[in-house]
Each structure stands twice: as C-alpha cells, then as structure tokens.
Fold these 2 entries.
Entry 1:
Amino acid sequence: MSVPTPPRTIHVGLAGLGNVGAGVFKNLEQNRDLIRQRTSADIRVEKVVVRDLNRPRDVEVPEAMLSTRWQDLVEEANIQVVVELIGGTTTAYDLVCAALRAKKIVVTGNKALLAERGQELFALAETCGVPIYFEAAVAGGIPIIQVLQEGLVGNRILSIHGIINGTCNYILTRMSQAGLDYQTALAEAQEKGYAEADPTLDVSGWDAAHKAIILASLSYGFWIPASHVHVEGVDKIQAVDLKFAKRLGYTIKLLSVIRADEQGLVEVRTQPTLVPLSHVLASVSGSFNAVLVSGDIVGETLFYGRGAGQDPTSSSVISDLCEAAAVLVYGARHSGFVPHGLYGKSKPIEDTVSHYYLRLTVDDVPGVLAQVSTVLAERHIGISSVIQPEDLEDTSGSTSLVLMLHDARLGDMLQALSALKALACVRGEPSWMRVETLQG
Ligand code: HSE
C-alpha cells in the first residue's frame, strides 16, 4: 500500500455544535498537523448545521459555514463524511438515512439511535455500500468499539461488566464520598457537561442500557431488543443504602452486565448494583467509565477512561473520522457492524439470576424475621446474611432489616417482593438491588 502525497483532503459535514460537536471542531483544529501526518488525510469540516444561528458557542466557526438545514450536508456533493451529533431518534434518523443513501460515510455518537434502530441502519449502510462508525456512542473516550471489533475479534465474549454512564457514576460518587443529596449531585454533573440534553435518559439508566445493547450486539452478532433489557436508574437510590452497602463491604454502581449462558442466551441489564469494595470497578469514580471484558482466549481485560465530557467524547469522534479517511484514501471496509449471530436469542428478563440486597422497614416485634424468611423460602430464595442495624431504629416501633440473598431468578425475586409488601409487618416499599460478586 503506498502512502498518498500530498495528503488527500476529506470533506466533512458536522450536524450539531453542542458540547461534543464544539469539541470535535476545536480538537481537529488543535491536532490537525498530527492527524495529517498519521492518516495522510487533511480532515476539513466544511459545513456545520446548528439549530440556532445566534446562540453563543464555545468555538468560533466562520458564518459562511453555518446552516440550519441538515439537508445541506446531504445535498452538498463535496461532503464525503457526515457527523451526526444532534442526538434524538427522529431528525437524526432522517439525516443518517439520507446521508447513507447519498453514499456519504456516517459518524455518529448517538447510542439511542443505534440501540433502537441499529439493525435497519446497518442494513441500509450495507445496501448503500458506505459504513457507519460509532466509537463515541459508548463510554466516551474509551475506544471500546474498536476493542470488540478488532482487538478481541478472535475471542468469544464470555461477559462484559461496565460502568458506562458518566453522569450516574458522578452522582453516586458524590453522594457516597461527599454526602451530597441526589439533586445537588445531578446539578453538578449537568454543569460539567456530562449529562445528556435530557438528563432523564442518564438517571433512568437508559443511556447506559442503550450502550449495553450496542456492546451486546457487537459481541453476540445480533441486535438485542430494548424490551429484553432489564433497566433501572439511580433516581431512587437512598443515602441509607449507600451506607449499608459500605458496611457490608460493597459500593453501589450503575452496572451494565452482558453475558451469554451455556445455551447461548444473552442477558443484558443495567441497574444500580452492589459491587465488592475490593474489586477494581468499585474504585471507578466521578465521570470515569470502565468496561471489564472477559474473552475465552484473552481472559479478563479492563478499559478505563473518561466516559463523558467534551474532549474525551470528541477524541472518539475524531478516531472515527480517521477511520473514514482511511476508507476514502485506501479503500472500503465493512459497514460498521457485521451480523454474525442471526440465530442468537436474548434471555427473558425474569430468567436472569443474581444475588440480591434487600432492605425492609418492618414492625419491631418478635416473629417478623420468620415471616420474611418463609416468604423467601417459598420462592427458593436463600438468605446469606441478615443485619438489623440498631442505629436505624426509630421511635415509631419500626426497624430496618437488611438481607443479603443467594442467587435467585428475577421472576422469583419479584414475586417474593410482592408477597413481602403484602405482609402486615412490612412498612412502605422494600429497597432491593442486585449484587455482583465479580468472581471468575
Ligand atoms: N450522558 C452520557 C454520560 C454522556 O453521562 O455518560 C456520554 O454518553
């Protein structure tokens, strides 16, 4: 392969000049010479689509480059690569489809779009003969997509455990280390530019779940339907649970778990989960993300870095632009996603199995523990430890019971929770979370 000289110019259209878009524009400029030397391509943003021409911005873009019509990026024959950073699943979908049909390479950081419509978008990319690249869609600056597509391509993926939402990790870290309340911690994360435009996506767990769907689909070769993913957010976590978790030797992380069982059924879930304090994932703090990938040949590998924010995420977009430049300079690659597990199946949510943490507020009278353990035993759920923290007893005659439970099917656990709520001695809503021991 010969290196072209002088460098080829790659003409890019950028849709979205928010936090990440501005970072791409700024950092492409900052490292232009280095990128040109490494890729033999001079990557030039030619047109930028924004929602409001008059909005103050982080970067100075010549007025002549700005437009409010996304169609301009598709209609302009000169543009070879369209970068979609507007988010959402409506206009972004129209833009990506139109760009592919116009034979332009697409780069996107839009995890919701890929999680919901990835299957049809990659099929369209295949038909149109142009790829979609999406490194920025998962784990901000960590190049985890390349890891799965290239670095670990020879491995069967046994499991992935990921902390893949910077906002939630920031919130949990600040609640647990600085004693902040949930709202204050969320406001800080928004101020630092980690949160999505609609932070509900972050705190509901769905942003991480979208990323987990992408990682699972790359690992197992078929698109996992969102309805088969068990998702819970951080918005209901109480400070008292962080305190008990610590007392039991754990911390709470919004953890995404992806794994296939012996029958090949793929489980995908994203929930607040107790993680042992002694495990390396417990020390992933603030907006940092970490993805622990276990492959049948390589064993365990761990990838760590900033999972949100302008510069880290723009680093991933720039990596995709360089990949696009390589295609344009040296020739075609695959569409971005190669389906290879068309007969794969995802595991029904109720059949997923884990240990659990359970905190109940109960009447402080004799016989309560016997009633609780009977309800659990009837669903074949074993108790591994119980604590009744004296410092939480109140004067209204109730007390807390904190139980650690052995492996149980989620279906059995949900039935047990309903039965526990119906007991006269149980007050209010039980608080429960999965526990991952992360051993083996
Ligand atoms: N809102 C996301 C996060 C940004 O907090 O992780 C990166 O996807």
Entry 2:
Amino acid sequence: MKISKVNKLEGIITVPADKSITHRAVMLSSLADGISEIDNYLDSADCISTMNAFKSMGVNIIKEDKRLIIKGAGLRGLKKPQANIDAGNSGTTTRLLSGVLCGQNFSSTVFGDESLSLRPMKRVIEPLRLMGADIKAKDDNYLPMTINSSGKLNSIEYTSKVASAQVKSCVLFAGLYADGITKFTEPEKSRDHTEKMLEAYGADIKVSGLTVSVKKCEKLYAQNIKIPSDISSAAFFMVAGCIVGNSKIIIKEVNINRTRAGIICVLKKMGAKVTIQNIKDVSGEEVADIEVLSSSLKAVNINEEIMPSLIDEIPVIALCATQAEGTTVISGAKELRVKESDRIKTVASQLLKMGADIKETEDGLIIKGKTKLKGAEVDSFKDHRIAMMLSIAALIAEGHTVIKDSDCVNISFANFYEILKSICR
Ligand code: S3P
C-alpha cells in the first residue's frame, strides 16, 4: 500500500465488530443448546478460523448478511474433526479452543501459520495439564499441538503469571467440563468478555476481584446478541484524528468496556480532545460514540498496571507519542514480544525508518517527541496492527510511504483502507 501525506481527516465512521467478542460468541453459541443469532459479527480472517474450527466439529454456522446463525451442538455434542484444525494466524482461536478441546472425548490437533507457530502455548498447556489433560506440543510450547481427550478433567485453583484473557478464557472453558469448581486468578484484570458471556449463556460463574470461578456445567443456552465495534480497531482512527491537523472524526458505537478502554484514559492524559458521547448498553457491553479532534499532545508514562486494557493499542499509542512533546516511557509490556510479531521490535524499527526518536527496552519503548516523520519503505511483518499503525503514520509523513504486506489488515479489519480513504481530505 502506498500512502501520501494528507491535509486533514473528516467524517463519521463505523469500524468493524469486536474481534474478542466475535470469537467468544461463535464458541459459546457452538457449545450451547439451541439456535443463537449473532448480529454484527466480525467477518475477518481470525474469526473465520474460529468458525471453521467449529464447523469442522459438526456445528452448523450460517452467514446471513450481517448476522451469524449458529445451531449449537451442545457442550458434549462436538464431533471429532476429519482433519487437523487450522487456526491460521489466530492466538485467540488456538488458546480458547484448547480449553474446549480438553473437555471432549476425542483427540485433535491444532496448527497455525508461521507467526502463530512461533507463539508460546505453554501458558495454556500448563494449567490444562494440571486439570488432567494429555497434550503434546512441539518443544512442549508451540504448535502443532495435539490434545488427546478422554472427557475427564478435574478442577484446579490456578494463579497465572501473565495477565492474559486468552489463558483465563482457556481455563474457564475447560472448567465447564471439570468436576468441581475451577478458580483462575490473574495478576492484573484482563478483558472480561468471557466471564460476562459465560454468565449470559447460563454458566455458574462468579467474579471476585482478580479471581473468577466456574462450576462444571451441564448445559449452555443459546443467546441472541449484538456485537459492538472494536475499540482496538477504532484506536487507529482515534490516534489519526489526534495527530493529523484540522481533523474531526466521530467513530460510532464503539465498545468502551473498561477492561479494554485504556487508550481513552491515555489519550486524555496526553491532552487529546477525545469526547465520549451517547453511552448505551448493547448486549451487556458499554457502547459509545467517540469524537476526536486534532490535538496538541504531551508525553505520558504507561506501565504494567494499565497494560492489559490497551495491550493491542500500544503500536498506535507509540506512534501518537512521536507527536507528543516530551519523553513517553512505555514499560511492563513484554507480552508485546509474543504477539503476531515482536511488536516492541517491529514498532521501534519501522518508526525509526520514518524518522521517529524511539528506543526499544526489554519490556517497552522510550519515545521522544515531537518529531517530524518522513515517508519510507516500511514492513508490516505481516502483523495487522503494525500495518494499520504504519498506514496512520504515513498520513503525517512528508512524501509517501510504502507498506509491505499491508493486506494482512484482513486479520481484524478487512475494510480498513476503504474507511481510511473515505475520511482523507
Ligand atoms: C485477546 C486477548 C489478548 C489480546 C488479543 C485478544 C482475547 O491477548 O492481545 O488480541 O480475545 O482474549 P492475551 O490474552 O495474550 O493478552
């Protein structure tokens, strides 16, 4: 993709549905009894990996315009897939699914693309083994991973070292099949969609501070839900609105769940003109329109505590920091090293090419602003969030920028370039 500097951004946009909620909606509806209707799902490559996995286990999933109709197989009604399950690029598919697969009475193997095959799975293998699962993985940590299930699991009380919603969800899903009550404690609060949705689908689940407990479950019940827009996709346009002069963007009906909305706090701290309007409830999630105006920004410190609520937004927040006066220090972000790319490295190396003053640390980034960016040939490393961040950087860079493998935006945001074009003036 070749992108040139723009004069301003202007418009009212709607970004695609929340990726995390779409994965969970497909999984829970597949495991429920009855027919679920999911309005406004995310039809992107990652969520298609989840849909295909459940289709391969006999679940009937039909796409009808902007809706998914899912005829659940029941918690114990999945069939052994004919072939190994391809999770594509999706960590969420792999880690959440592994919890479900441990509760079945068939064996299955999950594999993924080059990037997913480099991402750690020990974090789910370890608790699942404590629950009695029989799992084999490459080097005991990587895909392909084979789960030989007998359908018998025991409950555990597990304290996770990482604040990861994927690990939490995996253990809670396995907990649906485990005798007794499974308890999961995390070091910081990660996104809470699984807890909320398990409750809505009828599981016996309790949240107390950083601990979630789930009881063995006989049945989940089909639900009709509407999925709001993804704040992680909105984030690119929030930052774009702040850093491109004379801009005004309104992003409609974005999920502002507080376990996801760290970027709003950070942008406000940086002095950004961000306003939240028309707050309402959509299927148990808080949703609002977000208005962003061009802003004079100042540096900010971002640490471990707030990290889970903006982990996927760090690449675009780092870009924002290049346009803020002062030194922004991002720490406690070593999880970024095991995302779709090593995002500490890819963010620093590519923004450096564009003239930013940015340094890698072991667990974060140090960014000095404000710097003028210049167009360059940059690489997304096939990481969707890096491709989108670099595309936003290109809007303020002198000359033009060429982004390699930009089609990876399909992982979470297939019409990203269409929407971007529609607001460029
Ligand atoms: C996700 C959790 C986060 C996030 C990912 C989606 C989820 O990963 O980065 O994009 O839907 O549970 P971790 O659980 O690894 O932090």
